[in-house]
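Model: Ready when you are.
Researcher: Fold this.
Model:
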Amino acid sequence: MRWTLRFIALPAFVLTLAAAAPPELSPAQEARAERLGTNLRCPICTGVPITESTNDISREMLREVREQVAAGRSDRDVYGYFVERYGNFVLLDPPKEGAGVLLWGAPLLALGAGGAVLWRVLRRRSPAPMAAPPVADPEPFDPFLAQVQRDTARLPGNGREQQP
């Protein structure tokens, strides 16, 4: 009985270790796995890609990325796998489709709408008509001023000498 248990258990243990070991990747595949990992967010850390995180979950996710790259899956398939498990939150650069387009485009639409409203308001607003300058009232009669004007008119060299 012991012999059969060892005969079955030892190969099962070796197969388990082989399955848990990360697959051997070519340098191009390793670079691709790293590139994919830089766009996947660590579920525990805040805004940190799994390639920079030291969490066990991030290491497991990076190992899964390597396995999928070794299996020949496309980038879209790899991202789809993680989005299915963790949601769009796991992507550091989510696709700009669906509700994401609305979130990316809403500020631009608001800016354009505000500019259009401002343009319309400024265009419809007519310039204020120029007000005619107020007509100066004739100066009120000032006897002192009248006397000064008469006296200065009589001064020599004025050219307008008057006889009283």
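Researcher: Now this one.
Model:
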Amino acid sequence: MKRLWKVGELAKLTGLTIRTLRFYDQIGLFSPSAHSDSGHRLYNEADLSRLQQILSLKELGLSLDEVKSVLTGAQFSPLEIVSLQIARLKENIQREQNLLVELEYVSNLMQLKQPVTVDDFTKLLEMMKNSHEKYVLERRMTWERRLDLLGDLVDGNSDDSN
């Protein structure tokens, strides 16, 4: 027998909010494969695979409209999506490694009481800015998730399992 998850179970499993999953259903991005006799949304393993694709594409910075377009147009296979994520992660790691090297260089200059040039500081500040923008984006996404949770509480969680 195939495993089925209710929306509340899927939310806990994925870290998404029930409200987000309902919204995805409402806009036709991610709908359940079935409904129980009592009307509860039921998701299967294929649905989980689609949700992984959606989250991967969002992680790449695509808007929900772009994600929907990619998924309906079948422009990317799951392997291509994972490969894109790997490439993006490698870029982030490289950016952080470059920042680390520059910070160590400036720190070394300071420890040796060597002058730190305006170019050194400018380069360091630019690298910090790029790293900081990523941090700000992640914080914004965290706050959006918290606001979704707050919205669920305000809604009274009247139908958490629906």
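Researcher: Key takeaway?
Model: The beta strands are 5-6, 34-35, 41-43.
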